[in-house]
Write a structure and sequence with these properties.
globular, single chain, 7 helices, 55% helix, 134 residues, mainly alpha
């Protein structure tokens, strides 16, 4: 996939590396597949910000497992709004479209990265019981 167009965005806003944009675009394709039935029923190919955030979570866990959080930290992505900034950089530079209902604020109400990307890989806490014999 030729993503040279990302250089235009990176010249204007270098907060996130090219790899972060590539990840978001791949996650957007994943979201389209995940929500295909809903999108057909909705008669729109458009994925909402909340749907994209959920697809990002699932895709990251599938693709990177427990390393997802480290990768996001390396890219400077710590909150859902960071994904929103990437998406709206793509929108504002004409590489993605948005509807009149889309807003950067759609990415504000997001899962905790700790809950989404770390907790699934932590061992369950076991309860230690006392022996039943003396």
């Amino acid at each position: 996939m030729n993503l040279e167009f990302l250089n235009i965005i990176l010249e204007k806003d270098a907060r996130y590396p090219k790899e972060a944009y590539e990840f978001v675009l791949t996650a957007l394709n994943f979201a389209g597949e995940k929500y295909a039935k809903v999108l057909i029923e909705r008669e729109s190919p458009h994925v909402t910000g909340q749907e994209l955030l959920e697809a990002i979570r699932e895709f990251a866990l599938e693709e990177y497992g427990p390393m997802a959080i480290d990768l996001f930290n390396e890219w400077g992505i710590k909150y859902g709004i960071d994904f929103g900034n990437i998406v709206f950089n793509l929108v504002n530079n004409g590489f993605l479209a948005k509807t009149e209902h889309d807003s950067i604020n759609d990415f504000q109400k997001c899962y905790s990265f700790q809950e989404a990307f770390v907790k699934p890989f932590q061992p369950e806490k076991r309860t230690i019981t006392k022996p039943i014999f003396n």
